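ZP: hey, is the 2'-O-acetyl adenosine-5-diphosphoribose complex queued? I don't see it on the tracker
AM: it wasn't, my bad. submitting now with these inputs:
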Amino acid sequence: MDPYESFTALLASYPSPRIACIVGAGLSAGSGLSTFRGENGMYKDIDPMLLASRWGFSNDPLTVWTWYRDRIAKVLSTTPNPGHLALVELERLGVLHKIITQNVDGLHLQAGQSAEKLVEIHGSLSRTHCFEECGREFTIESVPEEVPVMCECGSYQRPSVVFFGEAITFSFYTLVDEIERDVDILLLIGTSGTVVPVSQIPYAVRGSTKIININPDPKTFAGITDISFEGKAEEVLPRLVEIISASLES
Ligand code: OAD
C-alpha cells in the first residue's frame, strides 16, 4: 500500500492525534547542512572521537574548534527548509506534543517552533561554556574570529553540545514514559538511529505508539516502523502535515 494512503487510514483511528518527533541531521540536509554519516557525511574521513569528545578537545582544541567554527559559519548562513516549516505547522494545528531533536543547528527555533515544544537533546551551536567548568556561559551570535575561543577564566570555551561519552541532561526514562503516556504517533525524521540513548526511544515505546519513519534510507529502523516513507523530509513532511490538516477538518 502507498505509505500516504496508509497514513491517511491510520489517522482515521486518531481524530485528535498526539504527535511527537525524533529528529536527526537528515531534516537539515534540505537546508544544505551535511549529515554526519553516509557517503557525504562529516564523519566520512575523520574519526568523530577526535572531533566530538572531551578527550579530542583536550588533545587538540584548535582542530576541534576549527571544525565547530566551520559548522557555526554554515549554520549562520542557512535557513530552515519546508520540513522545519511543516513541523511549525504541526504545532499550529495543535497536534504536536514535542520534538526531540538531535540537531544543534537551531533551525527549528529559526523556523518559528516554540522553545517549549523543543528538546535540543544534543545541545546547541548557539551557546558555549567553559571547558574547565568555571560556570561561565556564552552566546554565539557570529562566527568566532579566533579559535580556540578563550574563556575569561583562562581556559577554553567549548561548544555547548554533547560530546561522545558525556551524559545527556534529559532523562531517557522520563522521555519514554511521556511518549508512552501522551503520544499516539511518533515520527522519526532523518536520523540514522546510531547514537544512544535517542536511538533507543522508538524501541522502548513501540508497543504503545505508532512509529512512522521518514528517511531516504529504508534500512533505518527497519522492523519496528508501522509506516515508512522512503524520501526526503523536506518533501515528505509538508505532505504529511497537509493530510493531518485535512483529517482534522473532516
Ligand atoms: P546521521 O548523519 O547519522 O544520519 C542522518 C540520516 O539522515 C541518515 O539516515 C540519512 O539517510 C538521512 N537523510 C539524509 N538526507 C535526508 C533528507 N533530505 N531527509 C530525510 N533524511 C535524510 O545523523 P543523526 O542520526 O542525526 O551528535 O546523528 C545522530 C548524532 O550523531 C548527531 O546528533 C551528532 C552525531 O554525532 C552530536 O552532535 C552530539
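AM: back. The CA atoms of residues 140 and 230 lie 36 Å apart.
ZP: great, adding it to the tracker
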